[in-house]
Amino acid sequence: MVEPATFESVEGSLRLDQTARVAAIQHGLETGSLTPADALATLRGLRRQRARFPVVGMYLGGLVVAAGIAGILQPTWPSVLFAALASPVTVALIRLTGRRLVPAALLPLFAGFIVAAAAFAAFDAGLVASPLRTMLPPVAVLLPGALIVTGLSELVAGAMVSGAARLAHGTTQLIMFAAGVAGASLLTHAPSSAFVNTRVDELGPLAGFIGLGAVTIGICLMESVPRRLAPWVLAVTTLTYATQWSIQNWLAYPAWAGACAGAFVAAFSAWVMALARPTLPRMVLFLPSFWLLVPGSLGLVSVTQLAIDPHESWKTATNASGAIVGIALGLVFGTSAARGLRVTIRRTRRRRPNRPA
Fold first, then answer.
1. If 0-12 CB within 10 Å is exposed, 13-18 middle and 19+ buried, where does residue 176 land?
2. Do residues 239 and 33 make contact, with C-beta atoms less than 8 angstroms apart?
3. Taking the CA of residue 71 as centre, how many other CA atoms within 13 Å lie in the half-sphere pointing to its CB?
4. Alpha-carbon dihedral angle through residues 320, 326, 331, 337, given to the nearest 10 degrees
5. Alpha carbons 120 and 41: distance in angstroms, whole number
């Protein structure tokens, strides 16, 4: 009996543990170890799958992610401490949004306003340098850089409708963040020196790699990544960050070149690992590195500077635009190279003569 096709609207994205489950269902269908009826039954209950650490994991993971990003963006002890102290505000707003107590559309505005007000107050008291960079780590999990880069990648690949929609949505969220930061600056009477995009490095180059490990652990906690996948996720993020860091620091190439190379390595390595071990979910391996690469923070800085002090915004906006384009191109090249490798391997296996029993 043939039934009509149906459509069901769902809200929000999947956690990484749910994404891993979807990949396992796909692998089961491809290998014949799972029937279509069992696959549908599992998919229906996927949204009800609870996180391993629904409360502690969110707050502890958010704290570790924020501190790790501070070690990468603004490696100073005051910035790391501020990120750790301010991160619970962002997590609390996310949880309130999930309970529909805070409108999802206003989440970037509220988070940007509260965290920026605290950062400007700390700057006024002489506790932190460059409050714009200091306020970024606590709100980094909300920044729409992934939407913007994904949208641009889709436009490059020819998916005009979805690409334009993602770009518009991501840009709107970025403007909401900037409006919150601008409102906080007016409330605290922040001076023009507070909007200078200055990176202060007091902890040395190892801080970035330590921060990378912290970000990976925090994402695993927040997204309930299965333990068996955590080492693979760390391997991809380490390869990605090491590539980007080497291109920019050892070879002294511009930021867009490092972003492009890092995106290529992230996409290609995740594909190769999934080809070598088909039970590994490629998207779960790739997405944490993608979030690490995405320059949503620079985008927020440039939009905020443009709204308050246009003279300071040009260099940051240029760097952010170059990084976004570089990441989009790196993703396209990396994915294309990996798909080409997969086709070559499959053709080689088909041409290989069967050995006699």
1. buried
2. no
3. 21
4. -170
5. 51
**What are all long-range contacts of 344-349, with beta carbons under 8 Å and residues at least 24 apart?**
345/275
Q: Is 176 left (phi over 0), alpha (psi -120 to 50) or beta?
A: alpha
Single out the residue of 289, 183, 198, 303 nearest to residue 244, CA to CA: 289
The answer to whether 141 and 90 are in contact (CB under 8 A) is yes
Separation between Cα atoms, residue 72 and residue 204, nearest integer Å: 10
Q: How many CB atoms lie within 10 A of CB 251?
A: 10
Residue 205 identity (one-letter amino acid): P
The C-alpha atoms of residue 299 and residue 134 are separated, in whole angstroms, by 15
The count of C-alpha atoms lying within 13 angstroms of the C-alpha of 192, restricted to the half-sphere facing its C-beta, is: 6
Question: What is the distance in angstroms between the CA of the first residue and the CA of the last residue of the chain?
Answer: 43
Which of helix, strand or coil describes residue 99? coil
CB 181 within 8 A of CB 118: no
Q: How many CA atoms lie within 13 A of 289 on its CB side?
A: 35
- For residues 325 and 149, the answer to whether their CB atoms sit within 8 Å is no
C-alpha span between 282 and 127 (Å, rounded): 42
315-343 pLDDT, tens per residue?
A: 666 666 777 777 878 888 888 898 888 88
**CA-CA-CA-CA dihedral for 299, 302, 304, 309, to nearest 10:** 180
pLDDT band for position 250 (50/70/90)? confident
| pTM of the predicted model over 0.85 | no
